């Protein structure tokens, strides 16, 4: 008899995660939340600890031909800190593990760690351990981050309520356009190595791709303003995909407005240049590492004047669906593409 074989691509990334987690049993009462949010939550008495981990692989998550190692080290930390921010927590420690091939010199590893150290200083975290091993399949970096938040102030994906206001920080779609630009310049260079990449014009979007910054500034400001979001997630896979997570876990619907979506001019212009729809880039572009959160209506006044928090819509009842009101005032159904690694 032929053995059953299911391709991972049939499940997709999220399907695979669900499948692997089906049989997990939590054995300790101190494990408040295991898999299923931006970070796990552990009971530590007066506070809760949040933990998140990420794996970055050469050729899947980054391309060494245009990724400076120092930026890569910084980004590896930033994407993890972003998950801690998404829990409304403050990062405290990281572990850093790397798999290195013999292509790497000590100088190259130093450059990578210069970026890791710069991020540790920027986010005020201690590097407390990790592992180093050889790799036959290119560079591998895995970072685990531990953070803390006062008990009761942790924010999950599951707390959004009907009529809450949906907020997004910064601007979206830039990291995707940065990737498009870098890939194009790589092709030009491969075809003719005498051609030097023309990147000055695209400095903002390529910076968004190569050296993203986790929005810890927003977490500190929310604290100062005494605002605890009702739900939160970081935007790593694209706005639409993250909205779907909040809808699923909170049991709600959403209505967002196209004309409220934040997009930088350089992102918009480069999308047009590449023949892409700028709004599609905003909805489905990954790796911006901004925050998506919902607040109670009564907290609106506290954030109204914030220059970098955008009110993009509101939460609805689940049966109202997931809709975007376009500039021409028609409501269209949102689709989440997310990132397909498989
Ligand atoms: Mg996340």
Secondary-structure blueprint of this entry?
Blueprint (H helix, E strand, L loop, with lengths): L7 H14 L9 E3 L6 E4 L3 E11 L11 H17 L4 E11 L5 H17 L3 E4 L2 E3 L5 E11 L14 E5 L4 H18 L11 H8 L5 H9 L6 E5 L3 H12 L1 E6 L7 H9 L4 H7 L5 E6 L4 H4 L5 E9 L4 E4 L5 E3 L9
Parallel strand pairs: 4-5, 4-6, 10-13
Antiparallel strand pairs: 1-2, 2-3, 3-7, 4-7, 8-11, 8-12, 9-11, 10-12, 13-14
Helix pairs in contact: 2-3, 4-5, 4-8
The structure holds magnesium ion.
Pfam family, one: AIRS
EC number: 2.7.4.16
Function: Catalyzes the ATP-dependent phosphorylation of thiamine-monophosphate (TMP) to form thiamine-pyrophosphate (TPP), the active form of vitamin B1.
Task: Please characterize this protein's 3D structure.
The protein has 342 residues and is an alpha+beta fold. It has 2 domains: 8-150, 60s Ribosomal Protein L30, Chain: A (2-Layer Sandwich); 165-333, Phosphoribosyl-aminoimidazole Synthetase, Chain A, domain 2, CATH 3.90.650. The protein contains 10 helices and 14 strands. The protein has helices at 8-21, 69-85, 106-122, 174-191, 203-210, 216-224, 239-250, 265-273, 278-284, 300-303; strands at residues 31-33, 40-43, 47-57, 90-100, 126-129, 132-134, 140-150, 165-169, 231-235, 252-257, 290-295, 309-317, 322-325, 331-333. The strands form 2 sheets. Strands 1, 2, 3, 4, 5, 6 and 7 form a 7-stranded mixed β-sheet that branches. The protein has a 7-stranded mixed β-sheet with strand order 9-11-8-12-10-13-14, with helices on both faces. Helix 2 (69-85) packs parallel to helix 3, helix 4 (174-191) crosses helix 5 and helix 4 (174-191) crosses helix 8 (265-273). The longest helix is centred in the middle third of the chain and has 18 residues, at 174-191. The chain is globular, with a radius of gyration of 20 Å. The two termini are 28 Å apart. The chain binds magnesium ion. Magnesium ion (MG) is lined by residues 38, 83, 86, 233-234, 236. One of its GO terms (molecular function) is thiamine-phosphate kinase activity. Mg(2+) 2 binds at residues 54, 83. Keywords: ATP-binding, Kinase, Magnesium, Metal-binding, Nucleotide-binding, Thiamine biosynthesis, Transferase. Pfam families: AIRS, AIRS_C.
